[in-house]
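Need tokens for this chain, all 448 residues.
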Amino acid sequence: MLKPFIWVLIRRIRILNFRFFKRRNYIMFQLGQLLTAILRIIVVPFIGLYYFFAAIGQLAFFLASIPSLLLTLVSSAIVLLRSRSSGLFLASIADALAAESGRRSFIERSLLTDRQIKIRETPPLFETPEGPRRLSNAEASAQEIRLRYQKERETVLFGRAGDALQTLSEFATRSGETSLEYSLSLRKLSFWERRQGYLDWVVTIATPHRELIEGHLLRLKEWLGIGVEFGAYSPATLHRACRDTPEEMGTIAGGVKTVSDLLYALTCKHVLPRCDHDIFPTLSPGADIPDATLINMHDGCFAGHFGSALPIVEQSFLSDLYAEGRYVTRLGGASPVEGYVENRVSEYTIDGTLYSFPACTVAVRRRRILGLFVYPRTSKGFSKKGDSGSWVVAGLGGKNSFLGLIHGGTERFSYVILAEPLFEFLNDRLAAINPSERISNVIPFEDR
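Here are the structure tokens for all 448 residues:
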């Protein structure tokens, strides 16, 4: 009797277990359904809100980009129309090659003949009223440095255009018309301006006397070998005077150290025209002589301490700065601003004095925020009064490199005397005082 009872008991237990697990599974299923419903009620609205705000953000970005797109299209149209109206002519590749060959031959012959004479290539149909002018040692050195710095085809032809403008300026002065105020800069054509078989570079001439030179330039088209266009003219000034000491003030942002451990401050010569500590007192800036000098360190002016030495921006890096639109900044002077190299070669006149030593132009960098707001709001220049002598540096290889000295400028851009040819000239002048002396380091002040 016991054995059947045990089997019945086991069977009962199995039935109870089956019912329990069946009920448990049913309860878990119902709980799962309940939780799913709760999650749908709570989470789905949040997901909907996420996609809603994401769509609003995309729409806002699209609407914000419309004005920027319109402004870009309008500005491109303006640039295109301006280039067509102000462009005088482009130069064919054939004319450029012939002009480059003739220019290089002329310079080589002139330097071999006599380095102490003023080398200027007179355009056809013009005559030089007097013989070549004799140069001082400093002028001859600066002239040779300028000519050597013109290496590429476009810079060689830029030099020929500069000689032509100097000749036309003298011609206008002799004719009793006026003394030409002008600036020259070298510009690479944008892709929509280029034409098959023509040089990609033009010389931009900014002058209020276009009517006096336009006809002459058209006749010299083949001889020049480079395109010519006219730009908006804005008179340039030396950025020397400032509010506190308007008579003679600018900026001294640092100095140099020589191989004999001598320290000199570096700035523009017009910043301290009557300084007794100027080691080049007889230099007269203008033409090929750069507006720069070295000053003996003394207690009266220099309270700062030198920081770390900076490398110098070489010509190849300057080409990269221009081509890639890299940003530069200023040490010393007014509050630092960011800029970019607008033209890597320039010649210009300030108050009737021509400056042809290698220089570039730097314009202020302007940002567009959300495609709508421009910062800074005004299009003021990269430098202003009181900034003469401040340094321009560029970030290369993860650290700053010395590009050059602020000399002057217009309301829109600044002229910067390039450091590499400038230090070649200063080394030559130091060697005239002490043949074993030369610059070893370029060092800004720590508070700059």
